[in-house]
Amino acid sequence: MDNPVILAAGILGTTGASLRRAALAGAGGVVTKSVGVVPRDGHRGPTVVQVEGGLLNAMGLPNPSYRNFQEEIDIGRGGGAPVVASIFGSGPREFVEVAEGLDADGFELNLSCPHAERYGSEIGCEACNVEEITRAVKECANVPIWVKLTPNVADVVSLGLAAQRGGADGVVAINTLRAMAIDVESGRPILGNRFGGLSGPAIKPVAIRCVYDLASALDIPVIGVGGVSNWMDAAEMIMAGAAGVQVGTALGSAEGYGIFRSITEGLSAYLDRKKMALEELVGFARRFS
Amino acid sequence: MRPKNARIVEIVPETPSVRTIRFDLALDPVPGQYVMIWVRGVDEVPMSISYRNGITVQLVGEATSAIFDLEVGDSLGIRGPLGNGFSIVGEKILLVGGGVGAAPLALLGETARERGVEVSTLLGFRCFDDVIFRNRFERIGDLVIATDDGSEGICGRASAGLSCLNIQEFDQIYLCGPEPMMADVIGRCPGMETKIQASIDRYFKCGMGICGSCCIDPTGIRVCVEGPVIRSDRLVGTEFGRYRRGPSGLKK
């Protein structure tokens, strides 16, 4: 990839047009919205609520099924950046079915969505599942496999090690933190699904810690995601050990798609000022351990 | 923002399937902006704003049916106003609406009239019984009505009424209604693409430009934040008038 700033899964990745637009706006790579075996409409609304320091969402894995998604990947490739397909399933068989049904530049295994029954973190919270699913997809695909990990466990490193044993080419950390908001007027949980996942600036320190721990323990690259809103956040994530950085919630800021360019330009200016190469910045903070 | 609580202070039946609901909360929108309406326990759906403190709802599905079950004193959750509304341009404007699409145009017309702009309106409905906001439009300028069955005014779509008007004399044209009608109007006004503003209806989930469910092919315009009002030159060569996507992202 030309630059390490990547569109995160689940954000604007429903259509090829928006993937392409993100790439043209300066993303070094783009990850699609998660795609599964059958079409899903997702959870009832509200699916998103703004909370202190971030966003709470429970979209519920809406997707048109992999059978209707190749066209979107192909259109997305028109932006000139690699298109990584985020895929989900209830077990190895479904993951393999989706991976075999799509031609993408890489796959990101969603083993971490915190608000969909039978999927995501419900299976991805167990290291044995992570290893088995990673191995199954790795055996059928000839493109890089990333595994997106859930932070809603006692030990994220054990999940990262499981992905590595399964043959992953990289891990992506972190998905959203399980969270909830209640409407004080009515006493009802606001999200249609009652609970969801927290993203945005509030979770960045958690993501930094996870990336730091994972990068210390793994031999494969770690891609950092969680609350990156500007170039300083990206630099911090890279110094924690991230080889690349994904941006999601910040796309909803006033900057919109412009966020990619402002992060990459800010990072470049920083590296120039420090007279450093990007590779030297990766894991810089770990020298103080 | 979290949803704000809005108590219903007035319910006005406009037709058997259209109701205006007014709140104890001033929305103070730019005309053309929308709100996300949370019917607690049911769903959250986008609604265009028809009054500074009200919305006009057509009965179309589960969420709107639940809204129709509410009474004065009940409350809803509201996020917004959201998105980009109409911008008032020039001294003489034309509003073209179809069905419940007349709702945001009424607020736009009143706002423009207050600023001294000359307003003409062309509205299409299925039949005489479906006509809404006749008085609001007549109060601000000329009004031409068309109905599909000819039971009121011209027989045909709103766009059929364009032949009664000298289109070139308008500084700006504003559209809100069924997409085939809007596409038809744009097609009948060649060379005026930069003078037409259309309010676009797409499937919104987040209302904040991140989920991607409302993006237009092939440009990726996020209707929920860059719209819902889009200048028609940005719609040329797009999916507009041809297809849209449902909740799963499937085209329909």
Task: Provide a quick synopsis of the model.
The complex is a heterodimer of chains A (289) and B (252). Chain A is of the alpha/beta class.
Structure description:
The complex is a heterodimer of chains A (289) and B (252). With 289 residues, chain A is α/β, with parallel strands linked by helices. Chain A has a single domain, classed as TIM Barrel (Alpha-Beta Barrel), CATH 3.20.20.70. In chain A, 34% of the residues lie in helices and 18% in strands. Chain A has ten helices and twelve strands. In chain A, the strands form two sheets. An eight-stranded parallel β-barrel of chain A has the order 1-2-5-6-7-8-11-12, surrounded by eight helices. Chain A has a four-stranded antiparallel sheet with strand order 3-4-10-9, with no helix packed on it. In chain A, strand 5, helix 3 and strand 6 form a beta-alpha-beta unit. In chain A, helix 1 runs parallel beside helix 2. The longest helix of chain A is centred in the last third of the chain and has 16 residues. Chain B is α/β, with parallel strands linked by helices and 252 residues long. Chain B folds into two domains: 79 residues, Elongation Factor Tu (Ef-tu), domain 3; 108 residues, Nucleotide-binding domain of ferredoxin-NADP reductase (FNR) module (Rossmann fold, 3-Layer(aba) Sandwich). Chain B is 16% helix and 34% strand. Chain B contains five helices and 15 strands. In chain B, strands 10-9-8-7-11-12-15 form a seven-stranded mixed sheet, sandwiched between helices. Chain B is globular and about 50 Å long. The chains are: A alpha/beta (289), B alpha/beta (252).
Please describe the topology of this protein.
The complex is a heterodimer of chains A (289) and B (252).
Chain A: E1 5-7, H1 16-24, E2 29-31, E3 48-51, E4 54-57, H2 70-77, E5 83-87, H3 92-101, E6 106-110, H4 121-124, H5 127-140, E7 145-148, H6 156-165, E8 170-173, E9 177-180, E10 195-199, H7 204-217, E11 222-225, H8 231-240, E12 242-247, H9 259-274, H10 278-281
Parallel strand pairs in A: 1-2, 1-12, 2-5, 5-6, 6-7, 7-8, 8-11, 11-12
Antiparallel strand pairs in A: 3-4, 4-10, 9-10
Helix pairs in contact in A: 1-2, 3-5, 5-6, 6-7, 7-8, 8-9
Chain B: E1 4-15, E2 18-23, E3 34-39, E4 43-51, E5 54-58, H1 62-68, E6 75-82, E7 92-98, H2 102-114, E8 118-125, H3 134-140, E9 141-147, E10 154-155, E11 172-176, H4 179-187, E12 196-199, E13 215-216, E14 221-222, H5 223-226, E15 229-231
